[in-house]
Write a structure and sequence with these properties.
Layout lengths: L1 H30 L4 H17 L8 E4 L3 E3 L2 E10 L2 E9 L5 H21 L11 H24 L1
Antiparallel strand pairs: 1-3, 2-3, 3-4
Helix pairs in contact: 2-3
GO molecular function: FMN binding
Organism: Schleiferilactobacillus perolens DSM 12744
Pfam family, one: FMN_bind
């Protein structure tokens, strides 16, 4: 009798764990790929600030951000502005000295580029598992944005 009860309780615990795992897996898939809601909210914030100031409009040209040292190597970007908006972001330098870094950056950098283009800002979320690269990406992009804004205000 006790064996049946223990077996039943153990089976219920395993079933509950499977349900929770499936829920987390589903939930994680909803938020992990580039988090569209974050990009949208960043874009909304930028558009709101652009209506109150002209500093979010950039001068057309190509701007190279500073090289930012991270724990795994430097990150440096080049940003192209066309029509007052960021139209392209090229990663000039990124950590690639180790296979792990290459693998992580192969996934993270396209996500960061897509998010930054959507947000028209360096105010984007980090990519999980690529914290150092994400920070370096945002810092170098912000430097390039500052250059584009300075060029716009000095015109």
């Amino acid at each position: 009798m006790y064996r049946r009860i223990v077996t039943l309780l153990l089976s219920l615990a395993i079933a509950l764990a499977m349900v929770i795992d499936a829920y987390l897996l589903f939930f994680k898939k909803q938020t992990s790929p580039t988090t569209n809601s974050t990009a949208a909210s960043s874009h909304t914030t930028n558009s709101a600030s652009s209506s109150t100031s002209t500093s979010s409009k950039f001068k057309d040209g190509t701007y190279t951000g500073k090289s930012v040292e991270t724990e795994h190597g430097p990150v440096q970007l080049q940003m192209t502005v066309a029509g007052g908006k960021i139209s392209k972001i090229n990663v000039v330098v990124f950590p690639n000295g180790e296979q792990r870094s290459e693998r992580i950056n192969a996934q993270a950098l396209p996500i960061l580029q897509k998010e930054a283009l959507a947000a028209q800002s360096a105010k984007i979320q980090q990519v999980s598992g690529a914290t150092e690269t994400s920070d370096g990406f945002k810092d170098s992009l912000q430097n390039a944005i500052n250059q584009a804004q300075e060029s716009e205000t000095s015109s």
